Amino acid sequence: MTNPSVSEGSTELVLTELPRSSSNEGAHVAHDPSGVLRRPRPPLAFWKALGLHLLIPFFLAAGMGLAYIGAFHEPEPDHLQVALVGSDAQTQVFAQSINDKALGKLDVRTVPNAKTARKLIMEREIAAAYQVKESSAVLFVASAASDTTASIAEKIFLPIAYGQHLPLKVEDIVAPNEHDPTAQGLFFLLVALSVGGYSCAIAIAAVAGRLGVLWRAGIAVASAAVVAGLGVLIAGPVYHVVDHRQWGIWLLAWLYDAAVILLGVGLHPLLRHWTTPTLTLLFVMLNFTSSGGIFTADTVPPFFAALGTFWNGAAWLHAAQTLSYFPGQDFWLDGLKLALWVAAAVLLLALTHVWSVRRTRLANELAAVREDEEGIAA
Fold first, then answer.
1. How far is the first Cα of the chain from the last one, in angstroms, to the nearest whole number?
2. pLDDT per position in the chain (378 positions), as tens?
3. What angle is formed at CA 229 by the lines to CA 226 and CA 235, rounded to 5 degrees?
4. CB under 8 Å, gap of 24 or more: what pairs does 338-344 form?
5. Cα gap 42→4, rounded to integer Å
6. CB of 158 within 8 A of CB of 137?
7. Which of 57, 149, 187, 289 could form a disulfide with 71 if both were Cys (CB 3.0 to 4.6 A apart)?
8. What are the phi and psi torsion angles at 334 (to 5°)?
9. Among the listed residues 105, 227, 88, 119, the one whose alpha carbon sits nearest the alpha carbon of residue 157
10. Domains, the chain, ranges and CATH?
């Protein structure tokens, strides 16, 4: 059918024929008195599929809330290790009285002199030390270990000094560098390493899943080196958060990311699309909250404090802080923890590879048997 046209003056009206639909949709439109297109309700299968897909974001929302709010909503000391400087009976009685009033929030000891107090703070055996002098009081802290813990210690001892009618002087014996005044730059580097690490794991599992296990392991280790390098490059030369011992920080970051990526690649054959939320649980929800980067183990609930004793994020951060701010201190235990995580990741990768190969072989054998049965039946 042609399109007729009618001309009136300078206005031309063009009439076009509506396309005909071969479906019933046109009939619905023509006979719908409300003028609204009515479609059938989604089937039950749709709601099931939607529910399964929404499980992951619901899990992430609940998990992030439980982890972060649970760990950080009410920070308070829990057996925080502090010291009073002095060895006389009066100091010991004073220490015991603080312990009794603290009700488990503080563990107060006495040290003979300020030199010993500084040494214990450098070794991170205690968080703070309080010394009474003739006309003033001194609080020794190390904000490079934790700025929030140093602030908590100051809030604890400031009223004590006020009650003794003494001005309080805070002596920060290990301060962070000028480009990282809150001493949390290394923690945010940990965040970058973690997100980059488990993202690499997902990418490698998705693309290199058909490769041999040695190829996947090699790609994972190489990717860990790149992620670690990018993180240290940004934290070092770009923003100067890490202003020395950058190669040592990079080696620790490589070891940390190798475990994260190998674990992700190893878990993928088992968990498939649940690999990402599982890695988020391991290396975001539980990792950041137990690392001590914002609040140390002495100020978070016992569950997160216990995780920090063996979790790889806490080990990496403690070792990186030692390299950056506490020279001469050993961090072999942190290195051992990181190495054990890598060993566990390699073992998991090997086990899931064997399981995957076995499952594939059994599936092929079953398919071959069915083909033989169909051939016999034919």
1. 55
2. 444 443 434 333 333 344 444 444 444 444 555 545 566 788 888 888 888 889 999 999 999 999 999 999 989 999 999 999 998 999 999 999 999 999 889 999 999 999 999 999 999 999 999 999 989 999 999 999 999 999 999 999 999 999 999 999 999 999 999 999 998 999 999 999 999 999 999 999 889 878 889 999 999 999 999 999 999 999 999 999 998 899 999 999 999 999 999 999 999 999 988 999 999 999 999 999 999 999 999 999 999 999 999 999 999 999 999 999 998 888 999 999 999 999 999 999 999 989 888 887 887 777 777 776 777 776
3. 145
4. 338/252, 338/255, 338/256, 338/259, 338/312, 339/255, 341/256, 341/259, 341/263, 341/312, 341/315, 342/255, 342/258, 342/259, 342/262, 344/259, 344/263
5. 42
6. no
7. 289
8. -65, -45
9. 105
10. 80-172 (3.40.50), 185-364 (no CATH)
Rounded Cα distance, 265 and 244, in Å: 33
